[in-house]
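Dear H.,

Thanks for agreeing to be a second pair of eyes. The structure we're designing against is below in token form, covering all 445 positions.
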């Protein structure tokens, strides 16, 4: 499906005039937010773009990226009929949010959750209805608004996103769901997601992205900020499924407090080029984080994910597993770091990245790292890369499977370790099906 952008968006770009037009289109925003936007815009104008001379960008070339080909979303967005979401299929939800080109088009929340003080909906509307609460959330700066030029641009020009705030002791049994879609050539999504679980709270949030057609070039520049309070528990699934002509840039960070638990699962299937920084900071004693990643690339896709497990307090545990499968001339870059501060005694941390090469022309870069200042820790890492064993394909074909069916079985088995960590059956099945549909027949080697 294709869509036509509003005339005001077609004429607006990310320049000084476009920024002022964006502010003028949001007259109801609180003064503190407008001032923050202006500070970030000034920083953006003064900062250079990242280059391959920067360590975290030396394997990701963005010289073909042209910001002036895209424009910010102004005004309200019209809801369109797109493909059905993958993650919520067959799931009884407690609430849902839908957005188009970075602007919310639908927001629903069960009445009993709203009565308990739960806030869940589009961020653009929430900043006016819950200004004081969100001012405190922005002030935390979980993601630094000055980290790089992309972070500055997002902080200045975000138009929507999702907010989830769960009060102390509230446990949400039904999953919540949010989907962000992009439509039309030159469209952009500048989403900002803020998730806060207070002490003893519990929630499951499923988020995904989608493009309404396969041909329109788009730009996503987003941030995700997560705060898991003391003894709180968050299960968070984030599926990136843009089309293969979308530029995807994101800064994502979670802060986990004392005895808090976070399970964070990422699926990365789409984007022409993706550059994502994913960080988890364990700031309270006995905090725990499990990070799961499943990446599948094809064509000339380039996906770069930098992960960071930061142990700031004692007795914390982190476990990261990323699995990547690559076809055609695609490329993945994974840079992982376990950082343990001097205060992080008795840390137990692990990180692993496995790569399944489905073509001789694909390339996977894996760079694990450790930075440890404590002297009583257990920190390990590992990485593997390899091709599909022809004997496995032959064995499956001898049992009546076609060659492509055999390859799909092998790919499914490769990702099974990640899928087994997902506690929601429908999500596990949806990710497996989405990857399976992309698997091509292997050439004879």
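And this is the sequence the design step returned. I haven't edited it by hand at all.
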């Amino acid at each position: 499906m294709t869509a036509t952008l509003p005339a005001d968006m077609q004429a607006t770009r990310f320049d000084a005039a476009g920024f002022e037009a964006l502010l003028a289109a949001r007259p109801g925003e609180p003064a503190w937010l407008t001032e923050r936007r202006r500070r970030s815009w000034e920083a953006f104008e003064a900062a250079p773009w990242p280059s391959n001379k920067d360590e975290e960008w030396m394997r990701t070339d963005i010289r073909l990226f042209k910001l002036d080909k895209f424009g910010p979303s102004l005004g309200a967005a019209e809801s369109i009929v797109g493909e059905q979401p993958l993650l919520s299929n067959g799931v009884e939800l407690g609430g849902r949010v839908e957005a188009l080109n970075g602007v919310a088009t639908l927001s629903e929340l069960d009445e009993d959750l709203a009565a308990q003080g739960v806030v869940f909906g589009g961020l653009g509307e929430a900043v006016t209805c819950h200004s004081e609460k969100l001012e405190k959330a922005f002030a935390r700066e979980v993601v630094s608004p000055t980290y790089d030029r992309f972070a500055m641009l997002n902080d200045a020009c975000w138009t929507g996103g999702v907010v989830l705030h769960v009060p102390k002791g509230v446990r949400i049994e039904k999953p919540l769901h949010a989907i962000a879609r992009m439509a039309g050539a030159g469209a952009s999504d500048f989403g900002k997601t803020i998730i806060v679980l207070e002490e003893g709270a519990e929630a499951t949030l499923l988020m995904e992205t989608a493009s309404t057609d396969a041909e329109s070039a788009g730009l996503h520049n987003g941030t995700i900020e997560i705060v898991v309070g003391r003894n709180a528990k968050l299960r968070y699934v984030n599926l990136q499924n843009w089309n293969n002509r979308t530029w995807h840039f994101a800064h994502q960070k979670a802060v986990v407090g004392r005895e808090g638990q976070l399970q964070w699962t990422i699926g990365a299937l789409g984007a022409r080029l993706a550059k994502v920084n994913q960080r988890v900071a364990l700031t309270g004693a006995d905090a725990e984080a499990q990070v799961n990643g499943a990446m599948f690339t094809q064509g000339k896709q380039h996906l770069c994910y930098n992960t960071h497990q930061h142990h700031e307090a004692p007795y914390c545990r982190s476990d990261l597993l990323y699995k990547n499968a690559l076809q055609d001339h695609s490329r993945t870059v994974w840079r992982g770091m376990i950082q343990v501060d001097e205060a992080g005694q008795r840390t137990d941390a692990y990180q692993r990245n496995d790569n399944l090469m489905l073509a001789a022309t694909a390339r996977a870069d894996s760079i694990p790292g450790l930075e440890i200042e404590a002297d009583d820790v257990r920190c390990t890492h590992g990485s593997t890369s390899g091709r599909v064993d022809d004997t496995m394909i032959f064995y499956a074909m001898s049992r009546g499977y076609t060659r492509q069916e055999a390859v799909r079985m092998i790919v499914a088995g490769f990702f099974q370790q990640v899928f087994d960590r997902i506690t929601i059956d429908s999500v596990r099945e949806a990710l497996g099906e989405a990857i399976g549909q992309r698997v091509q027949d292997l050439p004879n080697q």
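Two observations from my side: Confidence is low (pLDDT under 50) at residues 1-10. The radius of gyration is 21 Å.

Warmly,
E.
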